[in-house]
């Protein structure tokens, strides 16, 4: 008869350990998901910044072309 209460106590502790481990896994998964979210947001911000830089570079290139045309006009005078 003493084996059943001992088994019940041992099994209960085992289940508690398993539950703690599952909680730990859930926390790790949540933290990983948050990390992926932050990385995705950072990537999106980087893409936006690169798009802005490209647009500004295109504008600068157009201004440079216009200035070259103006310089050519002065050379012809």
Which structural traits does this protein have?
77 residues, mainly alpha
Name the overall outline: rod-shaped
Strand content: under 5%
Low-confidence runs of at least 5 consecutive residues: none
Order of helices and strands: H
Q: How much helical structure, as a percent, in the residues?
A: over 70%
The overall pLDDT, averaged over residues, is 88
- Radius of gyration, Cα only, in angstroms? 33 Å
Major β-sheet profile: none
Q: Please count the beta strands (DSSP E, at least 2 residues each).
A: 0
Structural class, judged by helices and strands? mainly alpha
Quick description:
The chain has one helix spanning 3-76.
Task: Report what the structure shows.
The chain has 77 residues and is mostly helical. The chain is 96% helix and 0% strand. The protein is built from one helix and no strands. The chain has one helix at 3-76. The mean pLDDT is 88.
List the helices and strands and how they pair.
Blueprint: H1 3-76
């Amino acid at each position: 008869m003493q084996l059943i209460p001992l088994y019940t106590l041992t099994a209960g502790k085992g289940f508690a350990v398993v539950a703690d481990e599952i909680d730990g896994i859930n926390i790790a998964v949540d933290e990983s998901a948050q990390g992926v979210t932050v990385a995705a947001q950072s990537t999106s911000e980087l893409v936006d910044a690169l798009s802005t830089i490209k647009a500004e570079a295109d504008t600068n290139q157009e201004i440079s072309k216009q200035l070259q045309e103006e310089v050519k006009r002065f050379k012809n005078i």
